[in-house]
Amino acid sequence: MTQAIHENFTSLPTSELSASMAYKLLTGVVVPRPVAWITTLGQNGVVNVAPFSSYNYVCDTPPMLAVNIAGQDDGALKDTARNIRETGEFVVNVATRAVLDLMNASSALYPSHASEAEHLGIATLPGRLVKVPRVAISPVQMECRLAHIVPLGTGTNTLYIGEVVMFHLDPAVYDGNHVNSVAIDPIARLGGPFYAALGEILKRPRPTVPQIDP
Length: 214
Ligand SMILES: Cc1cc2nc3c(=O)[nH]c(=O)nc-3n(C[C@H](O)[C@H](O)[C@H](O)COP(=O)(O)O)c2cc1C
Known about the structure:
The protein is of the alpha+beta class. The chain has helices at residues 19-29, 79-87, 100-105, 116-120, 181-184, and strands at residues 33-34, 36-41, 47-52, 55-60, 63-70, 89-94, 124-125, 134-135, 140-152, 157-169, 187-189, 195-197. The chain has a single domain, classed as Pnp Oxidase, Chain A (Roll). The strands form three sheets. It has a seven-stranded antiparallel sheet with strand order 3-2-6-9-10-5-4. A three-stranded antiparallel sheet has the order 1-11-12, with no helix packed on it. Strands 7-8 form a two-stranded antiparallel ribbon. The chain binds flavin mononucleotide. Residues 35, 48, 50-54, 68-70, 78-80, 104, 107, 109, 189 line the site of flavin mononucleotide.
């Protein structure tokens, strides 16, 4: 394969970037991002639902997920962050193409006393090992207990790392041994208002150990 060599890159030292430009670059470049549709419990049992795409798995023994939650524009904690700190629990529900509009609607700035689940008609199922309910329509729900809180950078962003204490998998996406990722039909975030569904699936077995002479 011939490799085209580009030489006319736009090179941007981050010391000269505004925070909003850095955000734009990161969210346009780190794509596609899976979307954690997170449920938490607020005061008086208010069920909070909101999406987060600065998210991934970060450990398998024990299973751990990490989500980066920014502050509100006025510096206040988002409801999800406050609820996780107060209860030590959250549920990550996998966002699918079928719930794109509902998931997006749940990102609106609802007041803390209002439940997105109630206002948007998002049906829930009870948590088994945590008090936080799960989003019923999501084919995979992961009950988490807070393990670490890691403040990042200037303090605008904080990483919340949770240990998954229970997986709930719809039989349509799990046969008891394998997860059918295609059947999950996950939705992924791109930059700005853009999303992507799974495209062509490519298969490559892991390479064998290269034979390199000592
Ligand atoms: C697809 C999507 C992904 C998002 N990802 C993040 C994220 O990773 N971190 C974050 O702080 N906000 C993210 N947001 C914004 C939050 O969803 C939004 O601030 C929401 O109002 C927070 O709700 P809460 O106050 O109920 O926690 C995202 C929004 C959308 C639509």
